[in-house]
Amino acid sequence: CSSPQVNTYQQGGGYQMLGNIITMGLAFLPFLYRLFRTDNLEQLCSISLKELLHIFCGAPASIPVLLLSGINFLERLCLTWMFFFMMCVAERTYKQRFLFAKLFSHITSARKARKYEIPHFRLKKVENIKIWLSLRSYLKRRGPQRSVDVVVSSIFLLALSIAFICCAQV
């Protein structure tokens, strides 16, 4: 049942683009918060580099403060990107899993098998039932089902680590 429909199914990139935009927004969120909390919002265009670094760091700019702020920024950027990337992988895998299940359920219907160009099994003979059962067990072992569990549990652990880091930063 590893038909061309499953292997050549084109995934949309909308969720990944949205995840990248949200990642950039979350990485710059503390900087933007401090920027818009400054007293001189009307003089935003004429801010000097030293003042901009002070706003970025949240403290007077020195080498250790700049280094720590840069590390915090990269940490937020990388962790949120990994989180949204793994969410996209899980969503794609769930879609592929659903397509496998849908096509597998169509394998015993002559009309649906012809429509989706997959092999058709009539479950009238014992041999065909055995083939159908062995195909089902093969798909359970080899299909995308096993990787979904790993990805979802990794996303959960990553979300916990991001929440822990955010709480520590607050």
From TrEMBL:
Q: What are its GO cellular component terms? A: endoplasmic reticulum
Regions that span the bilayer = 17-36, 48-67, 147-165
Q: Which UniProt keywords apply?
A: Membrane, Transmembrane, Transmembrane helix
- Provenance organism: Ceyx cyanopectus (Indigo-banded kingfisher)
Highest taxon listed in the record's lineage: Eukaryota
Its lineage reads: Eukaryota, Metazoa, Chordata, Craniata, Vertebrata
Which InterPro entries does the UniProt record give? Answer: PHTF1/2 (IPR039775)
| Name of the protein in its database record | PHTF1 factor
